[in-house]
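Schema walk-through. Below, the input block comes first and the output block second. Nothing else is stored per chain. Lengths vary across the set, and this one has 194 residues.
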Amino acid sequence: MSRRQVVAASAAVLAAVTILLIVFVSGRPKPQQDAPGATAPDAPAGAERKITATLYFIAEDGTALVGMQQEVAYGGGVLEQARHVLEAQLGRAPAPLASAIPEGTTLRALYVTERGDAFVDLSNDARAKHTGGTLDELFTVYAIVDALTVNLPAITRVQILVEGKEVDTLAGHVDLRHPLQKSLQWVRTDKDES
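--- output ---
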């Protein structure tokens, strides 16, 4: 092959790879970007800035979710704050409450669209270690959906993915094929106890 043919072939391969990358990247939801140059105010040295968020755990009697105020790390934008809220939600529940999320479940990725839809990509433990049952699955799904929509008004709907893929359900009962809106139907309030 002549030098000219080698250069032409290399350019063709580079163009094909570029086109494939553009097609692959444009088909995925894009993470919401924070404004350029926007930074969080400086916190005193050694002190991490925190906010108070409402997280949802299973009540001691196992019949409802209970909203609990907890401090979570401050995030400079919607995407970063959503990540901090979700990481706290996936953590351990305060005694005597129980976590609605199967143990070992981790957050793989998080995307927030300009329309306010959040795509939460969880590890396979969300399905593989789920206890099953309609009520337990509702608690798992709405602990996640409500934690994001209640704490972050910019997020209006949430779709749960597992290992980067859309799933029909986690345990066979709650339809996860579309983003879900906030529903506090499963959350016990102080009024419910009186």
